[in-house]
Specification:
With 162 residues, the protein is mainly α. It has one domain. The protein has eight helices and no strands.
Length: 162
């Protein structure tokens, strides 16, 4: 097992596509790689806070479209569809979720928790999307739907709290 972990680590750290798909190495976390791999999405959302909604949406679209190729190509290169360490989809999903998060640390924490919940539990149709579509599109779409579920609850929360 150690040898295969070392082999994967080498593939991730020496191949630019895998390095990006594995969230710049965060997907190599030994425990909860999807949660750890979501953190770059939080950082990106925080850096984009004052950039205006149109630029933020443009970044979201770019992350998603690039992710279709990045995730699909990384899965092909390592030979495992939607390997748990491929976290570009979590980065994108987290970033999208944070677009409508209530301002402040508490809002970001709520958005983070909701997205991770839906991404882990994978209620219908999230799990089906990944398995039926396959490839990079399937990998990306399941996290997009998890982000949309989280966004719906964030919007409801915002509406109820006003």
């Amino acid at each position: 097992m150690k040898e295969s972990v070392d082999n994967l680590t080498r593939k991730v750290l020496t191949d630019p596509v895998n390095f990006v798909a594995f969230g710049f190495g965060t997907g190599l976390a030994p425990f909860a790689p999807g949660t750890v791999g979501s953190l770059p999405g939080v950082l990106l959302a925080w850096l984009m806070l004052d950039m205006g909604i149109y630029l933020q949406l443009g970044v979201a679209v770019a992350l998603f479209l690039a992710g279709i190729w990045i995730c699909g190509e990384s899965a092909r290169r390592i030979g495992v569809h939607d390997h748990g360490g491929i976290v570009w989809d979590e980065i994108c999903g987290m970033y999208i979720t944070l677009l409508l998060a209530p301002p402040g640390v508490l809002g970001f924490a709520l958005a983070f928790g909701l997205f991770r919940f839906f991404d882990i539990v994978k209620p219908w149709p999230i799990r089906d999307l990944d398995h039926r579509l396959g490839g990079g599109l399937g990998i990306m779409l399941d996290d997009l739907v998890a982000a949309l579920y989280a966004l719906i609850l964030l919007v409801l929360y915002g509406w109820l709290m006003t």
